Amino acid sequence: MNDRESQKIVDYIKNFTRKHSLFVLAYGTGCGAIEIPPTMTSRYDAERFGIRGAATPRQADLLLITGYLTTKTLKRVIRVYEQMQDPKYVIGFGSCTINGGMYYDSYNTIKVLDKYLPVDVYINGCMPRPEAVIQGFIKLQHKIIEGRADGAKQYKEHLEEYKANQRKVLGNTPYIEEYNW
Ligand code: SF4
């Protein structure tokens, strides 16, 4: 076996373990957050897929953004995301994260989440039911095992672009500048 083949096997094992142990930090920004308790508890039991809640950003692998963001909450979400350790993933949950949803013409909501943070998977719907949420988790797991869940890498590679977009709505707040990679 050559080095390349062994590296492939190691990557596969790493991704396999990541896929089956996703600790989720749910950031309940919008009404969709109400679907999280049934998804994570006994009725739909996301834990059978190796998915469970995390208490803090440092312990979390997956940031679940459950609905619309405002300019105020965007700041906090960026801060939370940047506190998470690699490897880390983001799911945008609900139509509001994709295109603003029913708040598309509001002056104070963020319309397209992936301009500001790298989104690995979107779950559409208003609000998505637990079955759709679990489907979104499974989609992310497929991307992880295939090595395609590279949002965090994209964020680092295109940090200037993301920061420029963030500054357009948030201004030059110390909140955004003080974090040091
Ligand atoms: S997509 Fe619908 S349920 Fe989700 S935050 Fe927006 S309005 Fe609320």
**Structure class:** alpha/beta
Mean pLDDT: 90
End-to-end span in angstroms? 36 Å
Number of domains: 1
Strand elements, count: 5
Q: In what order do the strands lie side by side in the largest sheet?
A: 2-1-3-4-5
What is the tally of helical segments? Answer: 8
Biggest sheet details:
5 strands, parallel
- CATH topology name, in short, is Rossmann fold
Task: Tell me roughly what share of residues is in helical segments.
Answer: 40-55%
- Reading the helices and strands in chain order gives HEHEEHEHEHHHH
Give the low-confidence spans: none
Short descriptors:
binds iron/sulfur cluster, globular, five-stranded parallel β-sheet, 8 helices, alpha/beta, Rossmann fold, 181 residues, 44% helix
Could you outline the blueprint of secondary structure elements for this entry?
Blueprint: H1 3-19, E1 22-27, H2 36-40, E2 51-53, E3 62-65, H3 71-83, E4 89-93, H4 95-99, E5 121-123, H5 130-145, H6 151-157, H7 159-170, H8 174-177
Parallel strand pairs: 1-2, 1-3, 3-4, 4-5
Iron/sulfur cluster is lined by residues 30-32, 67-68, 94-96, 101-102, 126-127.
Could you walk me through the main structural features you see in this protein, from its secondary elements to its overall organization?
This protein is an alpha/beta fold and 181 residues long. Helix content is 44%, strand content 12%. It has eight helices and five strands; from the N terminus they run H-E-H-E-E-H-E-H-E-H-H-H-H. The chain has helices spanning 3-19, 36-40, 71-83, 95-99, 130-145, 151-157, 159-170, 174-177, and strands spanning 22-27, 51-53, 62-65, 89-93, 121-123. It has a five-stranded parallel β-sheet with strand order 2-1-3-4-5. Helix 1 packs antiparallel against helix 5. The longest helix is centred in the N-terminal third of the chain and has 17 residues, at 3-19. Iron/sulfur cluster (SF4) is lined by residues 30-32, 67-68, 94-96, 101-102, 126-127.
